[in-house]
Amino acid sequence: MSTVGALLLGLPLAAATLIGILHRRLSTRTAGTLAFAMAATCFGLAVAAFTHLRGLPEDARHVAATFWSFLELGRGDAALTLDVGVWLDPLSVTWALFITGVGSLIFLYSISYMEHEAGGARYFACLCLFLFSMLTLVLGKNLFLTFLGWEGVGLCSYLLIGFEYGKETAAQAGRKAFLVNRIGDVGFLLGMFWTWKLFGTLEHGELTPKLAAGLAAGIALPPLLALCYFVGACGKSAQLPLFVWLPDAMAGPTPVSALIHAATMVTAGIYLLCRLSSLFVAADWALDVVAFTGAATALFAGLIALRQRDIKRVLAYSTVSQLGYMFLACGLGAFASSAFHVVTHAFFKALLFLGSGAVIHALHGEQDLWKMGGLKHHLPKTAFAMRIGAFALAGIAPFAGFFSKDEILGVAFARAYAGDPACWVLWGAGVLTAALTAFYSARMITLCFDGSSRLDAHSHPHEAPAPMAIPLNVLAVLSLVGGIGLGFEALHWLPLHHWLAPTLAPLDLPPLPGALLWGLMTLAFLIAVLFWRIGAKWYSGDCEPARAAELTFPRFAGALAGRFFVDEIYGALIVRPLRFLAALALQFDVRVVDGAARGLGQFAALVGTGVRIVQNGTVQRYAFWMVAGAIALLWLALG
Amino acid sequence: MDLATDLAATAPLWLPMLGCLAVLLLETLAPGRSGHLGALVAGAAIALAFARLVATAPSGRLPFGMLADDALGRSLTGLLLLVGAAVVVLAEPLLARLRLAHGEFFALLLASLSGMVLLVQARDLMALFLAVELLSIPLYVLAAFRRLSAPSVESGFKYFLLGAFASGFLVYGIALLFSTCGDTSYAALARFAADPARLGATWHVGVALLLVGLGFKVAAAPFHGWTPDVYEGAPTPVTAFMAAGVKVAAFGGVLRLAHEVLPDGAGLRAGLALLACASMLVGNLGALLQVRLKRLLAWSSIAHAGYLLLGVLVVVAAKSHAGATGAAATPLADSAVQAVVFYLATYALTTLAAFGWILDLGRESAELQDLRALRGLARRRPWLSAALALCFLSFAGVPLTAGFLGKLYVLKAAFALGTELIVPMVVLAATSVIALGYYLRILSTLYMERAPDENAPAPARLGSTGVALLIAAACGGVLLFGVWPEPLLRWLGG
Amino acid sequence: MLSERTAFLIFSVIALIGAVNVITRRHPVHAALWLVGTFLGVAGLFLTLGAGLLGAIQVMVYAGAIMVLFLFVILLLNLDAPPDEGLSFARGASLLAAVATLALIALPLARAPELRAAATPESPVADASAGQVANVLFTRYALPFEVVSLLLLIAMVGAIHLARRPRRDETV
Amino acid sequence: MAPQSWYLIVSALLFGLGIVGFVTRRNSLVMFMSVELMLNAANLVFVAAARDHVPARGSACALFVIAVAASEVAVGLALVLALFRLKKSVDSDAVRELRA
Prior knowledge:
The structure holds four protein chains of four kinds. By secondary structure, chain B is an all-alpha fold. Chain B has 20 helices and no strands. By secondary structure, chain D is mainly alpha-helical. Chain D is built from three helices and no strands. Chains in contact: A-B, A-C, A-D, B-C, B-D, C-D.
């Protein structure tokens, strides 16, 4: 198995190096084919690792392999020894499976997508490097390697966002992403040192036993330690308030958005939380912080998504919102449910991004939803696939997202039902977000594919070529069956949960009665369908942009009036607050997200003035500071 | 005292001195015509010294009653000799190009180098003082070596005036410490300081003034004023020598003082923490808007002084950690010393690569040192751009580069003390985020911005194989030690 | 014969008055001449401490050689008395800071208990005569002595390089 | 005999006057003279302190300081000359091409 582990890391690195060195000689197609072959092989290796682990007894399902000793710092008690190697267990292999699986599809898609772009080979080199870093992150045998991968994916993301040479917004977005992530990384690093100080190890395989031993011996685990990791996870997985980088990161090529900013990298935070689940469970109130941050992010990002015009920004905010669900699940202690949603989300969000990429490709770079419309006549296959993805996102049964999302809502409900009143808030936020999700998914699909065309007169969109269509079809199938295939709680069909069980902290919650479970499911289904209908109805027809852009009450009520007789109450209770919140959220997007960049500029100007005053070029000024320093030192020395 | 044994043990110190004399003699015999011979002699002297260094094992003796022949001195000496050799490689083509006097340059370089070696081995305050002077006085001249160029003379002049001022503080501090026990040897001072009751105002004022003098040499804020101006004006090889060599040597001196003499105390801790935090903040904020490469590196060198001072602070603080947890203190302090040395090695390596780069592409012309001239360079000079990007990633402490491990090691040493040093650690974390701001700006200048004239020919290079090889070797080291640091750690650990 | 304390007072007053004038005279030549006064005062203080050799060296090297060099350069550059430098905000701040440093050094030293002990030397084993100083220089401080020789040599080389007239073909 | 602290106070005053001169004067030659004041202050401490221990040691240290001062003067005055050649001034704030 150690060969498999070595190859899983070695192949992407080798491919990245090879393509990177030869990037001027290789055509985009050759480089892409090479990269795709590598990714597909990696998927095969991950499957091999999976079958090997399946063959082991349940409590011995892990394989550790050490390649070489990386470094040994200090001596004696203060020593810190770190090895380079892999740690294969159900959790890491699950992540490796969907990273390489979805990854290979996106690599395949990229071959056509990038064909006409300059520097395609460089792009694939970065993509391979990304795959290497991501696999290091999940397969590394200790937290330190995970951290190295963590930094590596950040760097690749930076390189790929800013890929389009000379595009200033992209360069800025890349910088912002890297900087915000760095704040999170500081948290991770601090957490790592603290862990080492407490337990004397960073190995994945040793941490949980040592933690259990420590808890048995009666040490108190500081919640702040868990929060350090949580800050790291917030940065990488775009949670409040560190989510600001993700929407801007959509400036990069669309396959990159699909791979990095939807399916894989942004779930690294969830991976970290799952990996350290026993630590989080032991750390008192830390999980509450996780749950509330997750719920708030889910709701907040969902609201912002309501009013976005750019198709990729809608998807970006929906990603943030879905990641919020995953954090909510972790916060509730249901790490397996979180992982379940990670997997289904990887399927349908990659599908949606690739689909939107096909649309943007067909429209020669147009991303504004108001300049689309009626595309189902031009792009029937893409429209069909995207609709499946959107159903999955909206949580409509039997599509994948329904099962995973319903399970998270079920856990929140069960906690509340078991007597934790705060969880009613979490459950409410989750349900409200589900409604919002259905609404904006329908809005996006309707504006894009239905209704009458608002395209430019001389635009002739055409369906994407086969290498782009195949990944869409495969992902569409996965979005259809990926949910029911991996878990259906009400039928006690939970293969993924059982598979992951040895590596995660167990959920200490009595199961809900079956009838309640079915009832909740029906409720979730009805809400999703209802809000989908509302969204679809509202934005269909010859939707006039200027009017439809506003969440006007009469129009909303009119859409409802045919069916319900509660429009007045509804308007007062839901629509008005909703409109207010959506307006607020839009303001947030404009002021805070963009304002952060402006604020940095002003700070920099202030610094510039300060430096000019201090560093005015005269010896006297410098001598003055030296004397000031001497005064300070003397003062401190004399106490 | 056995003179022969002492001489044998201190070959790395006197061989550069001898080389200096040889170069001068050569220049006297064939004035103005020694040409490459000066570089050869200098290189040979350094190589011989290095060979002697690796051929013998540290004896732990006290040569001449005031030098150290231990692992710390050995590893830093080795580092300094490598830096010196690299600077010879950097300087030779530039001197030839500018038609400057070779002989004097290499004589001054070797004298300064021997001062550095003396500084890291000194175990006596008088030796420390003379080492600082032997290091600095030739450097003042080297900074102003292009004596008809206004920026060069200005930088030498500023460095000299402020340097003389700082050495006034240094020598007064030494005198005060001498006055406490009537001796200048570290052993006597440590014996005196062992009893905290004896440490009065004289001692504390002396230590504070000593820190002012040494703080100037390591370019710690607020004694940093000279750094950007002098780095910018001095010839690039000299700047490289200052940035890499002086930093290593001065920190070597500080490290030994902290390890062997200075007792832990609230005042000293607060003073070191103040210098560390101020340096990190001032260095990183100063670099934020800087567009000239050499000045940018100067500010970043100030910031790195801050990170290193945190390591020194750990060395001092680990001493009284002894009282709390018993025997664990010595490994703690040792590991902190090792951390600082490792950091110095990675910093010197990266700095040499970066200044080699500036020399190679900038060729001492002022306009090519402006960042804006580098827009879109990755298109036209992919390998060189990658080299610079790597340097800055290492400076920023991004993983898989040597710079990251240096920071990691220092932080780890600080963490071993628990939360005692939490303030400087938080400042380190915060400022390393600021630092990324300007390091990334360079990366996007190289890789993402568009050159104003895409069809203009790529800027010419210096065309020196030695310099190109040096950059390649240093970058290779940055990458290699970032991935596989064991050999370096073992070599530095002795 | 003067008492040692009287001699101390006289020489310190000379040294301090000289120092004050060095930093306040506008013309550098005047400052340099006052500096000679300080050097002589300090040399006198050395004598009161029994360091006769050092006092002689102080007079010869400092007051003699070094100051002549200073005066030589000042006269070579033919500098006029500069205009009054005035008291700007920056200079005021510098002055304040410098005075604060002075206070932070002088006051603690003046009050330091370890220095107020009665001056009863523990029967010095040796004095600072030429023979004794030479003994220390060539045994205990042999290495610094050698280093100083290199330092003086290299300073000379550097000074020559900087100050000699440009060659005809020399470029910037 | 006069107590050691008297000498130390005189030396501290000399040292402080040196600092004052350095930070307030513009003429680089006078600034440099102020540094000489600081060095002399240090010498006074060496000799005065050694009186109670090993007197010759203090004189030896002071001798080194004098030698260092001599080499600093040689280099420093050469730098002033080189500067004067380019700028026709020896004022320290006449050279501020390199800044910010």
